[in-house]
Amino acid sequence: MAHTHQLNILAALDRAKTRRYHLAAAAIAGTGFFAGAYNLYSVILVYMLLGRVYFADSARPGEPGMLPPDAAAALNGAVFCGMFVGQLAFGWLGDRIGRRRAYGLALALVAVCSAASGLSFGRTAKAVVATLCFFRFWLGVGAGGGYPLSAAIMAEYANRRKRGAFLAAVYAMQGMSILLSNAVAMVVAAAMPEADYVWRTILMAGAVPAALAFYLRMKLPETARYTALVAGDLRSAATDMSLVLCATIREQEIDASVRGVDDKWGLFSVQFLRSHGLHLLATSSAWFLLDVTYYSQNILQKDLLGKLGWVSHSPVVTMSAVEEVSRLARAQALIALCGAIPGYCLAITLIDVLGRRQLQVAGFLVMTLSMLTLAALYEHWTSHIAGFMALYSVAFFFANVGPNTTTFVAPAELFPARLRCTCHGIAAASGRAGVVLGAFGFFPKKGADGEYAAGIGTRNELFVLAGTNILGMLMTLFVPETRATSLEVLSKEVIYEAVDDAACN
Q1: What angle (nearest 5°) sits at the alpha carbon of residue 293, between those of residues 374 and 409?
Q2: Which CATH number fits domain 2-499: 1.20.1250.20, 1.10.3720.10, 1.10.10.10, 3.40.50.1760?
Q3: pLDDT grade for 455, boundaries at 50, 70 and 90
Q4: Is this prediction's pTM over 0.85?
């Protein structure tokens, strides 16, 4: 541990007023995170068009072409596996070569593979899907890497008073990606009559924000915390801290701040297990349990919208593939505007006021009550699908306010700088495992008429989802509150003397 008897320069970073470099870091981290999310949330529209374009011949007379279940599973599995690998690999890489360099590699991968996805080729439908799977896997690797890297960059730049809001704002770009991906789809569908060009253009548009974030990243230096605490380059750290603090920092001051930091033990050591083992288990478990519930509804969205009349239930009769995509994009954009984005905005507002743990517990609690209500009144909802979707939307609104945001924030704050990206990557990869279970473990059951029974899942599945939310709430109790506390204190790297915040203003 480092015990200093002067104003610690690392603490000064936590107490600094919000300045241009804070906003620049938020913009760059947010743009990169947006680029990865765009490619994930535009896929439901792409899959619909792939079925119409390449599998129309295999459909029964009078029915539209649909992407076969095995092809959809392969495409989803490719990107999920890629994200799992990317979260672990780039998490480790961010702690080895630096956040800035690793983030550049991840963004370059997203940009290249977004463009390449739109150029997927093949003589047969299966060949096109196979090529797309290849590019989607590597796209997932880059997008997965954005989770630990964008979180670590923002956490290490932000001051402690607004750190939660900055991190939540980065994650809120996920909501903006849903909105913009559907806006792009509507514009492209209006401009292009050919369905094969539409899905390719939607995917290739994802390269634009990734390339922009890559360019902007070159203008941002490595985080001063990584440079000082991990790389040990005190001269560069002093220069970087001077920019953030708008004051002249000498190398000797940095040396006084980091002298004596215990940096010998690693992830698989007894010391880590004693200090942070429970934290890693709790953050990873909560993220896993949240994503089981959160992503269980994605595969049901189109059918719910069809039952509400927002999109056609028989598109082959009433509209073309491009028109159906346009209508579905409008419906999803409306859902994002009414649910996802307000939820993220409320999280940004409350996270540094109420704290991470209270928001996470409250979110899991509302989700639990919503699922139990839906399950208890299951027979009633079969004939009132609008009420079902309204209550289901309440659950996911509070998920965005609470655990869907806080599970991203907490792992970026609890662990030492030398292991921050690695541990965040492990927690995020655990969440990705929950995504797989939620997306593939709760498929709606079809009856003999080909319709989904009761519109969504079964009563037992809703009870199971309520149970996962209860477990998530329990695991949250083992996650320490991180609000307004210095990163080095939370990670037990440095102990600061009590210093009045006004000393750095």
Answers
A1: 130
A2: 1.20.1250.20
A3: very low
A4: yes
